Amino acid sequence: MLKVQNLTHRFGDRVALRQLSFEVKSGEIFGLLGPNGSGKTTLFRVLSTLMPMEEGEVFLDNEALSKSPALFRQKMGVVFQSASLDKKLTVGENLMHQGHLYGLSGATLKRRSEQLLSKFRINDRIGEKVERLSGGLQRRVEIAKAMLHQPKILLLDEPSTGLDPGARRELWNFLHQVNQEEGVTILVTTHLMDEAERCNRLLLIDQGNKIDLGTPTELKAKVSGTVITLESDKANDLHEHLKGRFDVGIIVMQDSLRLEWNHTSGTRTPSEFLGQVLEGFGSEIRSASIAQPNLEDVFIHLTGHAIFEGDTMKKERI
Amino acid sequence: MMLAIYTLWRREVVRFFRQPGRVVGALATPLFLWFFAQSGFGSSFRLMTVNSDISYGQYFFPGTLMLMILFTAIFSNISVIQDRNEGFLQAVLVSPVSRYAIVIGKLMGGMTLALIQGALILLIAPWAGIPLTWTTYFESVMVLAAVGFVVTGIGFMVAWPSTSVQGFHAVMNLFLMPMWLMSGAAFPAESASVWMRWIMQVNPMYYGNVFLQRTLYPVNHPILERLPSSMVCWILLAVSAVVLSVGCSILVKRYRAII
Lengths: 318, 259
Fold this sequence. Notes:
The complex is a heterodimer of chains A (318) and B (259).
Chain A: E1 2-11, E2 14-24, E3 29-33, H1 40-47, E4 55-60, E5 63-64, H2 69-75, E6 76-79, H3 91-101, H4 106-119, H5 135-147, E7 153-157, H6 165-181, E8 185-190, H7 193-197, E9 201-206, E10 209-214, H8 216-220, E11 226-231, H9 235-245, E12 249-252, E13 256-261, H10 270-281, E14 287-291, H11 295-303, E15 314-317
Parallel strand pairs in A: 3-8, 3-9, 6-7, 7-8
Antiparallel strand pairs in A: 1-2, 1-4, 4-5, 9-10, 11-13, 11-14, 12-13, 12-15
Chain B: H1 2-18, H2 20-41, H3 56-86, H4 88-93, H5 99-122, H6 134-159, H7 165-185, H8 194-201, H9 204-216, H10 230-254
Helix pairs in contact in B: 1-5, 2-3, 3-5, 3-6, 3-7, 3-9, 5-6, 5-10, 6-7, 6-9, 6-10, 7-8, 7-9, 9-10
């Protein structure tokens, strides 16, 4: 449905997107997962036509973006990271303006607005000024607004920024609902693991490069085995001690170590392995956990660094 | 296209009335300035023309209306910067609406606000010693609307590439305020030096001001003798309006600044 081919974007000397290619299938929820500054927002802005395309091409239903940006705009619904609602206007007025911009008016516009507002359970707030709504409700209005003209694809840039976990969960339930009921394809950028887990497929992106693409399950299968996290006040010392004794991949983080255990590591189970580690170096370890790999582990495994900023790590294979 | 222009225009006007501070500021500021300027300069102001019987209060009245338009243009263009970086305008830019409609909606908004405020401020003209008839009232309001459109357009050209409100203010102080000063609003063109008169003649606000002077001052007053005719003022304002709306649309298309 949406096909991106060799998309490259530069800001002066810095390359924000490098030869990026991928395809979003009709009806899926497609996630762009990467740390801040990875190029997600640049990609979002090029796709939403907010920024002109430099190199490469994007196709939506076989129509090229470079040839017909107006057609793209008609078929897309866009939800920005920052609110695009006019806070001085009411919920209803915001929807009315949006409808007019997409050529909807009169009874059609009214019917569609009411339909969406009741779907998002905000129909009782239609006459209220947006500035009086909570962050979670504003986001819902924002999505209702983007869905007004029945777009084929909905683009969302970090939609849960500034929302508490409850509101975030609720937002995702609504996204799944419109995906199912309206059949809209969804493309969402995120740096949050729990959001990424809820996508059908994910593109991992780092420093403008495509790292990997697949379903969350496929991606997690890239990390062989089990992830053992050891928290320690002296992570570097512990790293030195462990690498002399065990044959496992170790990633050093600020005050913890991540070990990727698998069957080649010389022990039968991860708990047996952990038992040996604790026996030898228990005094240096504050806490230990065993878990199946999550998407963060996948990202670390593939890029050598975490999605969140501030986690300075180095990856080493011993 | 018409629906989009209408909706953008309507939002501009509704927003104005939803912010009471803006309404009060837009009306009170020029009036205060007029009051203080005529009280202060009044006695030292003498027109160079012979037989002048125009007081500074009368002279400065059209200038006050011009100042009101300048404020309108400034405020409605500050929202361009805010909206573009964090709001409504982003959504407008990704919609299929033509860029020309975006500009016209905005400039018509500026025009309407100038029209409403002008219509109100003009009502006090008789207290400033300027008699009003229905015709002069109507003509003045029309020309204020036209100047509102043009000056909002000039402000738009400055605001669109600005990335911050502060940056816009700096350019505005450097550019829009002098434009007002050189419109003949505060002092007559005749008393200015030759080079300044040249600058004044390429300033669209000058023609708005001249038109108002022609309409509001007594007929055949000597001060009006060497000024461009009302017809010339209208033509030049219309040309400026067309040039600016096309210029703004090109700017919106070409220059997609995003923070």
